[in-house]
Amino acid sequence: xxxxxxxxxxxxxxxxxxxxxxxxxxxxxxxxxxxxxxxxxxxxxxxxxxxxxxxxxxxxxxxxxxxxxxxxxxxxxxxxxxxxxxxxxxxxxxxxxxxxxxxxxxxxxxxxxxxxxxxxxxxxxxxxxxxxxxxxxxxxxxxxxxxxxxxx
Length: 152
Prior knowledge:
It is a single chain. The protein is mainly α. It contains five helices and no strands. The chain has helices spanning about 5-20, 35-45, 60-70, 100-115, 130-150. Helix 2 (about 35-45) runs parallel beside helix 4. The model has no long low-confidence stretch (mean pLDDT about 95).
């Protein structure tokens, strides 16, 4: 299974992000490519405690949905809403220079995957506490989902 703990998977993400352009059309959803890039960066910041979000978890989300989202090898469905803090039409970081924003996603992704860690994992707003292995898998899946959204 693909994970950000694997340098080959991180390189794959980098290659796919390099194909993305500011005007790449989305296949679903509401975000533009520049908004999606900032959404990914905000996600990494949230995971590493550099950004916070209100807890929206429930026992069902923390158990059943988390397990399915992380371990069932099927593409994530479209339309699963995010928290307002990561929503680009609400409180998410606004796009700036596209190339710098992409470079920031890559920097944050590599920081998240680096060993030893110099941060403490935060609770996921939907899934609660995750292990290192779960965070690395979820990080890959989140980026993969949004790159698929733009055909990359």
